[in-house]
Amino acid sequence: MTSINTTINSSSVVLVSGGGRGVTAQCAIQLAKQYQCNLILLGRSSLTNVEPEWAKNCFQESELKKRIMEALIALKEKPTPLKVQSIFKNISQSREIDSTLSTIRNLGGTAEYLSVDLTNFSALQTAINSVVQRLGKVTGIIHGAGNLADKLIEDKSEQDFEKVYSAKVEGLENLLDCIGIEQLRFASFFSSFVAFYGNKGQSDYSLANDILNKFAYLLQRKNSTCHVVSIGWGPWDGGMVSPHLKKKFTESKIDLIPLEVGSQFLIDELNNNYQRLPQIIVMSRPIISESKHFFSKNQTFRIYRKLTLEANPFVLDHVIGHRPVLPAMCALSWLINSCEQLYPGYRFFSCENYKVLKGIVFDETLAKSYTLDLHESDTSIPNEINFEAILWSESSKKIPQYHYSSKIKLLAKIPQVLSEINPSDRLLKQEQISLSPYENGTLFHRGNFQGIKRIISLDSEGAIAECYVKSSEQKQQGQFPIQTFNPYTSDMLFQCLLVWVRHFYDFGSLPLQVNQIKQFKTIPFDRIFYVSLTIQSKNDNQAIAKALVFDESGEIYLEIDRMQVTISSRLNSLF
Ligand SMILES: NC(=O)c1ccc[n+]([C@@H]2O[C@H](COP(=O)([O-])OP(=O)(O)OC[C@H]3O[C@@H](n4cnc5c(N)ncnc54)[C@H](OP(=O)(O)O)[C@@H]3O)[C@@H](O)[C@H]2O)c1
What we know:
Layout: E1 13-17, H1 22-35, E2 38-43, H2 61-74, H3 81-106, E3 110-115, H4 121-135, E4 140-143, H5 158-179, E5 186-192, H6 194-197, H7 203-222, E6 227-233, H8 243-251, H9 259-271, E7 279-282, E8 300-305, E9 319-320, E10 323-324, H10 328-342, E11 347-356, E12 370-378, E13 384-394, E14 400-411, E15 452-459, E16 462-467, H11 474-477, H12 487-505, E17 508-519, E18 529-538, E19 542-550, E20 556-568
Parallel strand pairs: 1-2, 1-4, 2-3, 4-5, 5-6, 6-7
Antiparallel strand pairs: 8-12, 9-10, 11-14, 11-17, 12-13, 13-14, 15-16, 16-18, 17-20, 18-19, 19-20
The structure holds NADP nicotinamide-adenine-dinucleotide phosphate.
């Protein structure tokens, strides 16, 4: 462990952004109490040295607002609620800053207040330079400046985002550019527990605070002699926690951090002479995680997506009749991934009744936008979420065109597969079959889709194939990245059936539907696996098969039931 000596003493100069008011002011006061150090407090509010006569000694909110109205009327100005509130805010904030300064001075510390916007670099630099000449160079930073603009993401404006983001992130960058990490013994950022847990209406706030967390790691790495810590505070009993927010936290059973406890925690953390984690979370009482649905009743979600050929290079390896076509397994992964993203922590287990109604072709027929409708069908079963999914687009004549549909099941815990016999026993029956499906026109797949390496056995009852799919880069996978379902390795299931059809019918075939897929484990890239196919029914127009995917040790990854392809002589010329 690297020893860091933060040694705060009466000659330390600590710059505290947001230190004039709120919880950061309490921390500045606590520092003064303990060390009688020099504090530079920073905020945008101006400090009014002389209050108007009518405001003096008036501390009650309603009375002060009444006097503000009277003063405006005397000036022949309209006392709008907005104007009154703004003047009231200025007076209260100035009083709070003034009180912070005098408390620090009474405790034996030195305090100066800089009225400056952290996001204005040149103003900040000028202000800091002038104070440093009087107090000496800054030895520690507490970055507590921050703002809220709580709203649902769809209601947020750019200004809302800017207000929240800039004070935290640009503010920190500017501070460090003005001061320089090399001279600092400690740097503490006031982040929030929300960066980790998330919170409704606080997407910008979570993001900005998490940048502070990541910044702390970077800074600690750059300067090992400075104690860097980003503190993800739980809610305090003060500062930006309004009475309304307090009520909400109480309802969520989250206790507030008392001012003295929080500020003392900071002092102890800064006094720690050993390097600890650059990121910590401090709650008064931890949030209790309950395994329950986020939503109480069946929900419907509508998700829009645009597809482009440029964004999905992999489809160029899946060309049928000169036209790049979205593989059926990729379309299924679109449905699965979307469901999983709605319920973090739940994993795809099975799908039922998956239908390819109208495949997506990357040519002039590509729709401007595709719509995925997900409807939760049964929320009553614990640790299980069921969706009915339908993916559609609007034709040029404004008529809906349905592309894919399926039922998708997510589980909190994937069950173990039960198999009486070891599937790898099937590998004992190996035949000498020289089939080169990618060269003889059986399969049209190219590049990384060429995953069937060997046909081990093939008869009228089914087939067994040895497969190995090389991993592809994230960029290559485009808008169809792998989550728990790997569409690229799973594609081998349909390919095996296509090989079987070509062998026995000499016709091309294409995926139509699947009755059920159960996945116990993701079929991996860069590893040999086997597909064992058993024909369930066949005629001149279609073939239906079940299949099992397993590896050499007999571990089962996936099973599929009633996988159906359509057979047609017309397809021969397209492959
Ligand atoms: N209170 C909590 O429960 C809690 C919980 C987790 C994290 N935090 C974090 O702790 C910090 C302090 O919170 P608080 O509750 O004390 O908030 P607060 O009462 O709203 O105080 C915020 C402070 O930041 C200053 N500020 C905002 N934007 C600024 C800018 N652009 N330039 C300079 N100063 C700026 C404000 O001063 P002016 O308005 O005068 O500019 C004010 O002094 C925040 O960063 C917050 O995210 C608080």
